[in-house]
Amino acid sequence: MQSPIVDIRELTKTYITKRKELLVALNKVSLKIHRGEIFGLVGESGSGKSTLGRLLLRLEEADKGLILFDGIDIGSLGNKALKGLRKEMQIIFQDPYQSLNPYHSVKEILLEPLEVHRLGSIKERLSIIEETMAMVGLMPPSMFINAYPHQLSGGQRQRVAIARAMVLHPKFLVADEPTSMLDASISAQIFDILLKFKDEFDLTILFITHNLAAAYYLCDRIGVLYRGHLVELGPSLELLTQPYHPYTMALLDAIPKFGECEIIPRFNTLQRAEAEGYENIGCVFFKRCRPAHRIRCSHEVPQLTEIKENHFVACFLAEELQQRIAATGTCSLGI
Amino acid sequence: MELLKVQDLSIQYMTKEGAFLALDKVSISIQKGCSLGVVGESGCGKTTLGMGIMGLLPENASVCHGEILFEGRDILKFNQKEMRRYRWKDVSMIFQSAMNSLNPVKRVGDQIKEVILAHEPHMSKQELQDRVEALFRLVNLPVERLRDYPHQYSGGMRQRAVIAMALALNPKLVIADEATTALDVIIQDQILKETKILQRDFGLSILFISHDIAVVFDVSDDIAVMYAGQVVEIGRKHQILKNPAHPYTKALLSSYPKLGLEKERLRPIPGDPKKSLVYGNTCRFMDRCPEVDRQCKANPPQWIELEEGHKIFCKGTAHAIANS
Asked: For residue B313, what are the β-bridge partners?
């Protein structure tokens, strides 16, 4: 098997909050992203999912752990080597209203990365950006090339952001909630563009989202983060139809659904209020977990283990829960 | 009983580029104790509709046609005093951004008390305190947090506080405009469930406005689908789920991933929502419509009733048959 494009080992990142408290954003997260796949990282706000994306591009420094990109430890790189590496990895952000400079035209926005990395002659650069614009559906390019961000719709702005990331033909793209501010019909268009880049250019994508349904649609594999801990990791279809971790089940319960939903069971694994009066040095999800075992789960930290081929879960109760439920049927999921 | 009836409502904005018709002859109605979900993409006029019913249109907007009947009385003819009574006491609104609808330098409890006192100035201190505590319990907020400031709350708690404020005067209708859009799924799910309970237990009517069709389907009894300032399909939830008939509704529904044994590719709607200052008489969805034909270009769309209560605004051919 080919070596993974991204290999993260025991990555830890902590922040000190304003109140001088220690906040663990990521706790010993290990995962591999394979070449040409779309990997989905799902979690609620504060789960550490964006932190992971930022660490990967070295927009921030990790406290502990290792990130190998194409076999190279990116933490050890100096500024010059890092610049070369950044050509290979790009990012698109959630808010296309804020990530594009309002004073730059689409042309200037798209030319900048090529200028920074000194790629092509002036003439070649223009043809590269027009090609990329066509690929993201900004057609015909002449209609958009001199436009400014405020003249574009949200969907068009996000296309510009994707084009800006893609003009350098990177190997790896981090997409941090790229559709959470867009309407469903426009999100679906953006998903199509990302899938096209994956199919035609073998682009590897880390898709960061709070939305399990979007990840399910777009991704080959999904990792679920809860408060900085990777609690489940598996093939996307299997993860949604046969989840093992009670937190994944809770997420699945919470997605608004329509259609024939009666046949999707409710797992009811979420404790409404956090359990009080327990000292918890065990599982990170213990206080919100309804089926949790009082003593074991609060005293021992479950490790991520392979429960089925390519399907990992960090839960003592996984086997037991799985016997109780099995999801079948079809229904549509909100994104 | 019909609580709210909006009849042929048109609202226009004066902009630098000229007059923009944001709502074009929109008709909806809400029965007492029922909920209506209005769904559509950004710019379709759904927020304008909510603001119009609430009587909170910005200065550059004006109602150019139609009426808004609340319990049979046209609110557009209300004088200032009647309007003040109607707003918040009869109808209240939950806005999208909870942080912006709370005052950052006042305690949350005091803000809710202020709303109550503005309408019931003679209420005693104790009564007021009891009332606010009851409201907090209703939306599942701990009473101890009444003395906190908004920034000490999480996003979900703030949204709950805003809901408590909207319910402070026991309104008959609550307009929720993208009330859960900024929240995480788990909190969203809890708030939607609580909303349904309020509707059931207190006979509250709800106008639920959202771009997210899945959320709208979750909470509403009736659905109105809007496109470019017009309602294009309206009906009972089960009618629209079972037999979506307008091409836009169908396209919208197929933009959502299905959870099943195999993954299906989504069929996104091509192009962007139309936004223009002047619309002709012809269908506004025509350019993006997969079912467009010569008839669409020649004739304006018309209202077609498919079943009792289920109507679409489309070309005259028998759509229902094509769908069944």
From this structure: B303
Provide, as residue numbers in chain A, all residues whose Cβ is less than 8 Å from the Cβ of B41.
Answer: 183, 185-186
Whether the Cβ atoms of residue A18 and residue B152 lie closer than 8 Å to each other: no
The answer to whether residue A271 neighbours chain B at the CB level (below 8 Å) is no
Contact: A183, B41; criterion CB under 8 Å:
yes
pTM of the prediction?
A: 0.87
Alpha carbon distance A284, A231 (integer Å): 9
Does A259 lie at the interface with B, CB-CB under 8 angstroms? yes
Q: Which uninterrupted H or E stretch holds B282?
A: none
Q: For B264-279, how does the pLDDT look when each residue is reduced to its tens digit (9 = 90+)?
A: 778 778 877 766 777 7
What residues in A contact B266, CB-CB < 8 Å? 188, 191-192, 217
Q: According to CATH, where is 3.40.50.300 located in chain B? A: 2-242
Q: Are A224 and A234 in contact (CB under 8 A)?
A: no
Residue A14 C-alpha, separation from nearest chain B C-alpha, in angstroms: 21
Q: Is the Cβ of A139 closer than 8 Å to some Cβ of chain B?
A: no
Q: Is A211 on the interface with B (CB under 8 A)?
A: yes
- Asked if the interface predicted TM-score (ipTM) of this complex is over 0.90, the answer is no
Superfamily holding B2-242 = P-loop containing nucleotide triphosphate hydrolases (3.40.50.300)
Instruction: Find out whether B252 and B241 touch, Cβ atoms under 8 Å.
Output: no
Per-residue confidence (pLDDT) for residue A333, from 0 to 100: 62
Per residue in B69-105, pLDDT tens? 999 999 999 999 999 989 989 999 998 776 678 899 9
Furthest CA-CA distance within chain A: 68
Q: In A167-229, which residue ranges form alpha helices assigned H by DSSP? A: 184-201, 212-218
Distance from CA of B33 to the nearest CA of A (A): 22
Burial zone of B167 (CB within 10 Å; 0-12 exposed, 13-18 middle, 19+ buried): buried
Ranges under pLDDT 50 in chain B: 318, 320-324
Beta strands in chain A (DSSP E): 6-16, 22-33, 38-42, 64-69, 72-73, 89-92, 172-176, 204-209, 221-226, 229-235, 257-258, 305-308, 311-313, 331-333
Chain A with chain B: Cβ pairs closer than 8 A: 124
Could you write out the DSSP letters of every residue in A113-162?
A: HHHHTT-S-HHHHHHHHHHHHHHTT--SHHHHTT--GGGS-HHHHHHHHH
- Say which of B253, B257, B261 has its CB closest to residue A217: B257
Q: Is A68 on the interface with B (CB under 8 A)?
A: no
Q: Which residue of A has its CA nearest to B274?
A: A153
3-class state of residue A212 by DSSP? helix
Q: Which of B214, B263, B272 comes nearest A237 by C-beta?
A: B263
State the Cα–Cα distance between residues A26 and B188, nearest whole angstrom: 25
Question: Closest partner residue to B241 among A154, A259, A270, by Cβ?
Answer: A259
B257 phi and psi angles, rounded to 5 deg? -65, 145
Region for residue B179 given its phi and psi (left: phi exceeds 0; alpha: psi -120 to 50; beta: otherwise): alpha
- Using DSSP's 3-state secondary structure scheme, residue B74 falls into strand
- Give the torsion through C-alpha atoms of A205, A206, A211, A215, to 10 deg: 50
User: Which residues of chain A does B263 touch, with a Cβ-Cβ cutoff of 8 Å?
Assistant: 216-217, 237
Q: Which of B234, B236, B237 has the alpha carbon at shortest distance from B224? A: B234
